[in-house]
C-alpha cells in the first residue's frame, strides 16, 4: 500500500511539472474500489480533479463520480415481502385450485383469501412463485372453447360495455396535400383541445335485441353492484366483444348527423340516445354471426390480437 501510494505521488508530481502531456479526456475502464479510494485520498490532499485524472489515466467524469459516491456501492435491500411462507403456499394453492381462480383479477384475490393487502402485493408474490398473467393463453383457450358455438348459443350472451362519447369527429381524417402544405388552412382540421362528453353504457343480446342504456355521471362503483349476466371473458380483448363495433357505429352516426364540435350536455345526451335507438337490429345479428370467425382469428394468431 505504501509503495503504491509513493509511486502515485511521484507520478502526480511529474504530471504537475509538465513532464507528461496526457489528455484529460482519456477514457479508462470502469473504476475499481482501489481506484475510487485513491481518488478520494488524492482529492483530500488537495490535488485537482484534472491532475488526478491525468495521474490515474481516468476521465474527469470517472474522477468526479468517484468523489461524489461511496467507494463501495451499497446493495439495495429491497422491500420485504408482506406475505410469509405459509401465505405464499396458501396463495399458490388458491390460484391453482380452479379455472375461475386462475382468471381472477389480482385486485379480487385479497378479498377472496381474507387478506388485508393490495393488488401489487399479490402480483409481486405470484411473480416470486413463477406465475404471470398470460393474456394470450387466456384468449387462445377461450377461443378454442367457443369456436364451435352455434348462433343460438351466441344469442344467449348479454354483451355489455361502456364508452366515452363526445360530439364532432371521432376518426382520423386524411387530406390530399403536398409536402410543405401542413399549415395550409384547407389542410387543417380544427379541433377543440378539450371536448365535453358523457360516459355511456349499453347492452344487447340476440334474444332481446338492445337492452337498457345508461349515462353514468357519478358513483362509478355502483355499476359493479348490478349483475346483468354471469360470464367469464378474457381480459384486454375488445376484438372478442362485438359491442365495440356498436360504439363505432354510433359515433359514426353522431359524426354524420351532428358534425358540430360543440354541443351542450343536454343536446349530446339526446344525440347519443338517438344513435343508440338507430342501431339496426340486423347489424347486431350480423355481429353475432361472425363470432366463430373471430374465434378462428384468435386461434390463428395464437392468442394475440386480431383485425377485429
From TrEMBL:
- Pfam families, sorted: DDE_3
Q: Does the keyword Ubl conjugation apply?
A: no
Query: Gene3D superfamilies, alphabetically?
Result: Ribonuclease H-like superfamily/Ribonuclease H (3.30.420.10)
The record ties this protein, via InterPro entries, to:
RNaseH_sf, Tc1-like_DDE_dom
Q: What name does the UniProt record give this protein?
A: Tc1-like transposase DDE domain-containing protein
Show where the Tc1-like transposase DDE domain sits: 233-257
Q: Which organism is it from?
A: Hypocrea virens (strain Gv29-8 / FGSC 10586) (Gliocladium virens)
Keywords in alphabetical order? Signal
Is-annotated flag, keyword Transferase?
A: no
* GO MF term (any one): nucleic acid binding
Where would one find coiled-coil regions in this protein? Answer: none
The taxonomy runs: Eukaryota, Fungi, Dikarya, Ascomycota, Pezizomycotina
- Give the signal sequence positions: 1-23
Amino acid at each position: 500500500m505504501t509503495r503504491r501510494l509513493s509511486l502515485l505521488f511521484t507520478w502526480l508530481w511529474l504530471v504537475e511539472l509538465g513532464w507528461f502531456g496526457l489528455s484529460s479526456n482519456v477514457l479508462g475502464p470502469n473504476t475499481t474500489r482501489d481506484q475510487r479510494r485513491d481518488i478520494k485520498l488524492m482529492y483530500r490532499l488537495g490535488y485537482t480533479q484534472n491532475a488526478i485524472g491525468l495521474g490515474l489515466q481516468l476521465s474527469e467524469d470517472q474522477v468526479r463520480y468517484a468523489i461524489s459516491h461511496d467507494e463501495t456501492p451499497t446493495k439495495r435491500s429491497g422491500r420485504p415481502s408482506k406475505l410469509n411462507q405459509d401465505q405464499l403456499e396458501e396463495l399458490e394453492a388458491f390460484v391453482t385450485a380452479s379455472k375461475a381462480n386462475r382468471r381472477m383479477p389480482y385486485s379480487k384475490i385479497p378479498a377472496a383469501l381474507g387478506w388485508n393487502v393490495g393488488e401489487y402485493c399479490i402480483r409481486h408474490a405470484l411473480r416470486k412463485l413463477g406465475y404471470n398473467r398470460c393474456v394470450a393463453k387466456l384468449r387462445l383457450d377461450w377461443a378454442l372453447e367457443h369456436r364451435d358455438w352455434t348462433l343460438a348459443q351466441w344469442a344467449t350472451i348479454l354483451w355489455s360495455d361502456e364508452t366515452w362519447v363526445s360530439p364532432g369527429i371521432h376518426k382520423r381524417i386524411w387530406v390530399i396535400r403536398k409536402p410543405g402544405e401542413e399549415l395550409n388552412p384547407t389542410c387543417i382540421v380544427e379541433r377543440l383541445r378539450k371536448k365535453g362528453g358523457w360516459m355511456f353504457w349499453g347492452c344487447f343480446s340476440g334474444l332481446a335485441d338492445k337492452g337498457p342504456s345508461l349515462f353514468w355521471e357519478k358513483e362509478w362503483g355502483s355499476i359493479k353492484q348490478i349483475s346483468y349476466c354471469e360470464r367469464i371473458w378474457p381480459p384486454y380483448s375488445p376484438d372478442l366483444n362485438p359491442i365495440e363495433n356498436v360504439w363505432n357505429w354510433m359515433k359514426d352516426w353522431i359524426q354524420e348527423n351532428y358534425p358540430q364540435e360543440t354541443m351542450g350536455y343536454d343536446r349530446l345526451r339526446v344525440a347519443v340516445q338517438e344513435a343508440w335507438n338507430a342501431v339496426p337490429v340486423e347489424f347486431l345479428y350480423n355481429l353475432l354471426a361472425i363470432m366463430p370467425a373471430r374465434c378462428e382469428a384468435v386461434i390463428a394468431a395464437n392468442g394475440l390480437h386480431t383485425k377485429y
